[in-house]
Amino acid sequence: MSYSVGQVSAYAGVTVRTLHHYDKSGLLSPSERSPAGYRLYGDADLARLQQILFYRELGFSLDEIAAILKDPQANAVEQLRVRQRQLHAEIARLQRLAEVAERAIEVQRTGVSLTPQERFEVFGEITFDLSYATEAELKWADSAGQRESMARAAAHTKEDWRRLMSEASAWRTELLAAFDEGEPSDGERAMDLAEEHRLHISRWFTSCPPGMHLRIADDFVADPRAFALVVPPSQQRPGLAAYTRRAVRANASRHAGSRTERQEEDH
Q: For residue 39, what are the β-bridge partners?
C-alpha cells in the first residue's frame, strides 16, 4: 500500500513539517509517486520511519540515526549500548535530583518562613543561587556532612540566622581588612581567619575538618557562586577568592604540623 504525507503524519503522530525535513535531509524520502506526481510512502518507508522514531525517542540525533540506518549491523548495537549507559546515568541523576527536591520541600516545611524584608535584614547582600545549591547538593549527595548541614540549616530559627550572619559579617570585615592591608595569605592573621571560618562552619552546619575545609575553599576559586556565599560580589576584590583558599591551605598545613608534633611528643 501507499500513503500520502498527510496519512503518514496522522498514523505516526509526527507533523508534516517533520516529514518534509526528513525528506530534505535524506533521512526518509518517499519511495513512490502518485499518477499526479505526489510523493507517497510505501510499507518499507513506514518501517524506516518507525526505526527513526524509535532512535529519536532514545535521544539520538538525526546524524547519528542516519549513520545507524546506513549500516545497521555495524552501528546499531554499539550505539545502543552507549545510549543505554547514558540513559542509566541520566536516570541516576534524576533520582538524585528528585531526592534533592524532596529535601528542599522538607526544608520549606520545617524551615523559618521569612518575608522578603526579613530575608534582606538577615542575609543582606548574601544570596543563595538555586542552581549552585542544587549542583552542590547533587555533588555531595552521599556525604553525611552535607545531610547534617541541610538538617541543621533547616532547624535554625530566625534568631539563629541573625547571629550566624552577624558572625559571618564580622569575619568578612576582618578578611577584607587583612587582604587590603597586604597581609600574607600564609601569615598568622590570615591563617587565624581561615581557622575562624572553619570553626564557623562546624558551629552552625557540620563538622568541618581541615580536609573538608580545603575542598570548600577550592570551590571558592572554581565557582564564583560559591564565593558569593561568603563575600557578596559588591565587596569582592580581584584575587580575594584565591587569597582565601591559600589561607585555608596554610591553616590546614598548620593543623597537620600540630598533629605531627603531638605524635612526636607522645613517643
A: 33
pLDDT at 75: 64
Strands 39-40 and 32-33 come out as antiparallel
Measure the CA–CA gap between 7 and 216, rounded to whole angstroms. Answer: 59
**Integer Cα distance of 210 and 208 in angstroms:** 7
Count of beta carbons in the 10 Å neighbourhood of residue 192: 15
Other C-beta atoms lying within 10 Å of the C-beta of residue 259: 11
Strand, coil or helix: 3 = strand
pLDDT tens, position by position, 70-94: 876 666 677 777 778 888 887 877 7
CATH of the domain at 161: 1.10.490.50
254 and 163 within one domain: yes
In a shared domain, residues 145 and 18: no
